Amino acid sequence: MSSETSSGPLRDVAVAWEALEDAFENNAPEVHSFLNLATGDVIRIVDGVADPGMHARVAADAGYLHVDPVSSREQYRWMERFIATVEEPELRQRLVGSIDGKGAFRRFKDVLMTFPVDRERWFAFRSERLRTAMEAWLTAHGLHAVPRAEWTVPTAENVKVVTEQQVATAAEPVRVVRRSRTAAADAARARAHEIVDLLPVRERRPLPRARARSGERRDSGAGGEDAGTDDDRGDSEQPEQPEQTEQE
């Protein structure tokens, strides 16, 4: 749900806080950061590294908003305020000396490297200041940060369930095809029975076994030929009878 100000409702953006925090902290003149208003991601363009025309294209795109980093002067004030919260005298004295002159930020961090507890305190202190600055910047541009969707590493059980579901889904069409073929065959048989029931009784008599009868004809024909041969042979063996004349 969008918040509202005196100038109107704010636009919800799922801001990538860590990337935006880095953009606010990095105030190098050759680094240009932009917030994607649709995704909440932050892109960084470095002069001399990126495409020369990329900076101009992104800057002219209404879907991106240029990030104004916190000035070095303001970040220097943060270090001074943090030093005032340090209770150990030795550490406080070393930190005061580290921020004197050029290279103050690097020396300040080097001193904290040997004091892990205060180093973590500094990170939390700085993050709080950066968050306050980012929220003020977002509000000034009519934006309201909303939580981003969290991605969690799936467990082995989750992967197993998803895999089994995918295998079952892939095998489902095969079962459907098999069921469809069986149903089609059953429907064809039922239709054939219906057609047979509609035919008259005369039309439903079985057809003559033409093939069997033709075989019988062949067998009988073969036997007749043999018999005829025997008869012919017998006739040939009988002596011819002389024809009687009228004189007799």
Tell me what the structure shows.
The chain has 248 residues and is mainly α. It folds into two domains: 1-155, no CATH class; 164-203. It has helices at 17-25, 54-60, 72-83, 89-98, 104-112, 116-140, 156-198, 210-237; strands at residues 4-5, 8-9, 11-13, 31-36, 42-46, 64-66, 143-145. A hairpin with a 2-residue loop joins strand 1 and strand 2 (8-9). The longest helix is centred in the C-terminal third of the chain and has 43 residues, at 156-198. It starts with a strand and ends in an 11-residue tail after the last helix. Mean pLDDT is 78; it is low at 222-239 and 242-248.
Briefly, what is this?
The chain has 248 residues and is mainly α.
Largest sheet properties: 3 strands, antiparallel
| Outline | elongated
Q: Can you write the helix and strand succession as a string? A: EEEHEEHEHHHHEHH
- Class of secondary structure makeup: mainly alpha
Report strand order across the widest sheet.
5-4-6
Distance between the termini: 147 Å
Helical fraction equals 55-70%
Overall mean pLDDT stands at 78
SS element count, helices: 8
Rg, rounded, reads 52 Å
Topology of helices and strands:
Layout: E1 4-5, E2 8-9, E3 11-13, H1 17-25, E4 31-36, E5 42-46, H2 54-60, E6 64-66, H3 72-83, H4 89-98, H5 104-112, H6 116-140, E7 143-145, H7 156-198, H8 210-237
Parallel strand pairs: 3-7
Antiparallel strand pairs: 1-2, 4-5, 4-6
